[in-house]
């Protein structure tokens, strides 16, 4: 399988409508190139553009869905379309990832579980998701995570236990913590013996410079490709058999001790 990560910039001078059209065009360019395409977190509005969340919120089947569904169908790819500010029927906001099949059908949604902000920003403006989500992509089942989720290894273990062979992380990660981004992406790959496809934004969100440096890590923890800090598309060949080979040759997952009690 071949995967392309599109590290798109979020420029405040560009309208969400124009950025949707541009993102759709970038996805369309992957027709015949990739089987799976990944976009970053909250690229329609910007992960740190908190003041715009309310105005730019949309239902799951809103304008971003329309553009991305069409793009997936036209490119004939599995498309992880990053995430949007979802307005749920009850009015609550969620940071929701959208995944499309090559037919353009919406295959999965994932509401971000760990909200960033320490009692401000996303943490108070958005509700928390409650469900782990995997996507049965033929040959390479995906486990979904978003940005701050990357710091919580138990989420990824749950995804692996649910059958994920590749862990997709869409993010709007700040530049000042870029070393954490690359370190944690590699750690999640090593400890779960799975591919990690970590796609981040470029540019600046509400004055917060973005880390960029999207990367693909193999099940042994080797970085197969890494972007710089500007707009860029990474295209990498993935071998699903490598996951099984790694787990067979170094069967650490079999030695997990579950259900440990806290010390008394």
UniProtKB/TrEMBL annotation:
- One Pfam family of this protein, by short name? CN_hydrolase
Q: Show where the CN hydrolase domain sits.
A: 1-240
One Gene Ontology molecular-function label: hydrolase activity
Q: Keyword annotations for this protein?
A: Hydrolase
| Record InterPro entries | C-N_Hydrolase, C-N_Hydrolase_sf, UPF0012_CS
The UniProt family comment states: Belongs to the carbon-nitrogen hydrolase superfamily. NIT1/NIT2 family.
State the protein's name.
Answer: Carbon-nitrogen family hydrolase
Write down the species.
Answer: Streptomyces lavendulocolor
């Amino acid at each position: 399988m071949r995967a392309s990560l599109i590290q798109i910039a979020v420029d405040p001078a560009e309208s969400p409508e124009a950025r949707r059209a541009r993102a759709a065009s970038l996805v369309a360019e992957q027709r015949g190139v990739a089987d799976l395409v990944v976009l970053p977190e909250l690229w329609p509005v910007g992960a740190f553009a908190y003041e715009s969340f309310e105005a730019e919120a949309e239902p799951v089947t809103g304008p971003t869905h329309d553009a991305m569904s069409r793009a997936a169908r036209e490119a004939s790819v599995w498309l992880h379309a990053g995430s949007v500010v979802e307005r749920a029927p009850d009015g609550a906001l969620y940071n929701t990832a959208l995944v499309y099949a090559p037919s353009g059908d919406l295959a999965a949604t994932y509401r971000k579980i760990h909200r960033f902000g320490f009692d401000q920003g996303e943490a108070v403006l958005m509700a928390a998701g409650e469900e782990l989500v995997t996507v049965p992509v033929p040959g390479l089942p995906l486990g979904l995570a978003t940005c701050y989720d990357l710091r919580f290894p138990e989420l990824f273990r749950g995804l692996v236990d649910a059958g994920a062979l590749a862990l997709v992380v869409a993010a709007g990660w700040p530049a000042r913590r870029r070393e954490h981004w690359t370190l944690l992406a590699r750690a999640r790959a090593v400890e779960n013996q799975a591919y990690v496809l970590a796609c981040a934004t470029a540019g600046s969100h509400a004055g917060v410079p973005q880390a960029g440096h999207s990367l693909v890590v193999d099940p042994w923890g080797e970085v197969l490709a890494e972007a710089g800090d500007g707009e860029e598309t990474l295209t990498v060949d993935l071998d699903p058999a490598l996951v099984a080979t790694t787990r067979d040759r170094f069967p650490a997952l079999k030695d997990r001790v579950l259900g440990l009690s806290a010390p008394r």
